[in-house]
Amino acid sequence: MEKFEVLQSTAVPLPIENIDTDQIIPARFLKATSREGFGENLFRDWRFDNAGQPKADFVMNTGRYSGKILVAGKNFGCGSSREHAAWAIYDAGFKVVISSFFADIFKGNALNNGLLPLQVSDEVLARLLTQIEQDPQTTLVVNLVNQELEVPVWEEKIPFAIDAYKKECMINGYDDIDFLVNQKEAIEQYESNRPWAY
Amino acid sequence: MAKTLLDKIWDAHVVKSIPGGLDVFYIDRHLIHEVTSPQAFDEIEARGLPLFRKEQIVATADHNVPTKNQHLPIEEPLSRFQVDKLTENCAKHNIELYGLGHERQGIVHVMGPELGITQPGMTIVCGDSHTSTHGAFGAIAFGIGTSQVAQVMASQCLLLSKPKSMRITVDGEVRPGVTAKDIILYVISKLGTGGATGYFVEYAGSAFRNLSMEGRMTVCNMSIEMGARGGMIAPDQTTFDYLQGREFAPKGERWEQAVAYWSTLFTEEGAQFDKELSFDAADIAPMITFGTNPGMGMAIDALIPTDVPVSEQASYSKSLQYMGFQPGESLLGKEIQYVFIGSCTNSRIEDLRQVARFVQGKKKAAHVEAIIVPGSKQVEKQAIEEGIDKVLAEAGFELREPGCSACLAMNEDKIPAGAYCVSTSNRNFEGRQGPGSRTLLASPLVAAITAVEGKIVDITQYLN
Q1: Where residue B330 falls among pLDDT bands split at 50, 70, 90?
Q2: Rg of chain A over CA atoms, in angstroms?
């Protein structure tokens, strides 16, 4: 997993609520057995028409917006547990998704892949979306170390929450598997002492 | 302090707690399938890690399999490759696989319970969000991502924070024609698609208690559709009767011990939940969805709501536009082209029996394509033994072979762009059943009636 400390970037606004993982990456693209290449089909049916041509009015196709931060409506990532959704977003070049609410499984999947789900209030989200739509060159600074989202044009630093352990993992590029494998002794001890085992 | 059902099972699976509020959480059963496992196998292999407890893993092929001619090699090359990869990985790591053609093959959340692999008090995970289904037995069961699939393969554990608890109580008698599917669609319509995010839900009250295990599975299955990590129902005599004698259920003295332990798994009087909600069963009507998330449901004879908060109006309009519906409109009389009866929500023998009882002696409308995909080889076999296949064939319904099929349209079972499908599955997202497809979620009974009528009707006219 890539390390993440501070990211400065412009952002892409997607002001739609309840964006589900079938929109992020439709099931018909889940046939690949590796983690690579899902970015091509990110938001496939919003981004491309049936003939595979880019839809001119979709936010990623207008040429107006760019950047490594996706700013999306609340309850982002609901639906399926497919980690392919997090892979697709990351593979398309995003390192942060800002929303006012994330679905649980998506949030966990994002954190396990170095993609930061950054939760802000509904009010901040609405202001951010307006700001970016008005000025696509607006730069945001995501400082994970200080847990702050800085919006220089507003002269504001907005604090955000993240689990302390997950923050350490993101900053150092560690993942849970290293940690868990090192718990083998405790796990074996647990297994031998269970009052009821299946 | 009085404990909830969630507390009891959770606490019994904590290997250790680490500073910061995370638990090393032990997993009893790990179910895997072809779509979300290959990258996990690659990961543990790349790290040189062995499978820690391979005997606690069971595999099946379901998401990406054809529902016709399963005895022949899969035609679509990418699908074939993915299914072959599962076979190869399971052989290499010595994992029990119920692959295509195996008598135990089926949708992972149909197969586990019917074989007795799913038991009360267990922790069960799978790289699929509908793993919540298994909570019907009083288990902690939830969907995980592929990185977590690799973690469980490597350690039989996950690093988790305990979710908040919510109890949803529905008491009273349901009206005729109201099934488990209607109850859960009603609850989701009240909470919204993110209303239970961060929570683990316990379903309580007579409306759930009176359901069969199949009905309870339908309810718990859709917990994720309101954002919950999982849903559960305390085990009782219905649970024990369902499990007794199943292949992997405990036998003899061990069965007695198991039932004694399982009988302790209930929420104690006075236990506190982070959130409590109650509904009256009598308020629930046969349901249908009109939008593009499962929270957008209503009574089948109701009008599409117009009172939407300002902040949600843009998404709401986009959704109705996709569906081709207007706010304030009734769905009654709307012509539909497809009926899909299947998926981990409603493809069990009870669902097929209900459909067969209704369609016996009737014919589907000429313009409707009605597909029934059983949840497993065992369901298929039982349907044939009971003559359900013949009843369905005479009514013009096509009985396919088991798999996830048109629920997520990974295989060739797709609904064409613009067409309406009344579906017993769990998600009505844009394009879920194929690019441009329009899904209306409903119970198997509503689906069967719709297939015969060729349009949405008020089903109460059929009920005695």
Answers
A1: very high
A2: 19
Q: What is the pLDDT of residues B111-168, one digit of tens each?
A: 999 999 999 999 999 999 999 999 999 999 999 999 999 999 999 999 999 999 999 9
Best interface-test mutation with A: which of B31, B147, B158, B345 has the largest number of A CBs within 10 A?
B147
**Mind listing the pLDDT tens digit for each residue in B409-426?**
999 999 999 999 999 999
The residue among A81, A123, A124, A184 with the most chain B CBs within 10 A of its CB, best to mutate, is A81
Q: To the nearest whole angstrom, how far is the Cα of B197 from the nearest Cα of chain A?
A: 6
Average pLDDT, stretch B268-291?
98
Rounded Cα–Cα distance for residues B371 and B450 (Å): 13
Spatial distance between the Cα atoms of B410 and B430, rounded to a whole number of angstroms: 14
Residues of A in contact with B31 (CB under 8 A): none
Alpha carbon A156 to its chain centroid, in Å, reads 23
CA distance B250 to chain A (A): 9
CB A134 within 8 A of CB A120: no
pLDDT band at B461 (very low <50, low <70, confident <90, very high): confident
Which residues does residue B303 pair with via DSSP β-bridges, in sequence order?
B330
Q: What digits encode the pLDDT tens for the residues A53-69? A: 999 999 999 999 999 99
Could you give all domains of chain B from N- to C-terminal order, each with its CATH number? 1-285 (3.30.499.10), 288-462 (3.30.499.10)
**B36 in A contact zone (CB under 8 Å):** yes
**ipTM for the predicted complex:** 0.96
Number of CB atoms found within 10 A of residue B374's CB: 31
Q: What pLDDT shows up at residue B301?
A: 96
* Closest residue to A183, CB basis, from B157, B318, B432: B157
Q: Cβ distance A82 to A21 under 8 Å?
A: yes
Residue A139 to residue B344: CA distance in whole angstroms: 45
The whole-number mean pLDDT for each consecutive block of 10 residues of chain A, a chain of 198 residues, reads 96 96 96 95 96 96 98 97 98 98 97 97 98 98 98 98 94 93 97 87
3-class DSSP assignment, residue A185: helix
* Whether pLDDT at B464 is above 70: no
Is A180's CB within 8 Å of B150's CB? no
The one-letter code for the residue type at B194 is G
The first and second tokens of residue B222, run together, are: 């859709």
Nearest chain A CA: its distance from B131 CA (Å): 10
Helices (H), B12-102: 38-46, 77-93
* Nearest CA among B247, B215, B213, B214 for reference residue B104: B247
Decide if A180 and B24 are in contact by the 8 Å CB cutoff: yes
Give the N- to C-terminal CA distance of chain B in Å, as an integer: 48
pTM: 0.97
**Residue B159 host element (H or E):** strand B157-160
- With a CB cutoff of 8 Å and minimum separation 6, the contacts of A98 are A11, A69, A70, A71, A72, A118, A119, A120, A125, A128, A140, A149
Q: What is the pLDDT of residue A197?
A: 79
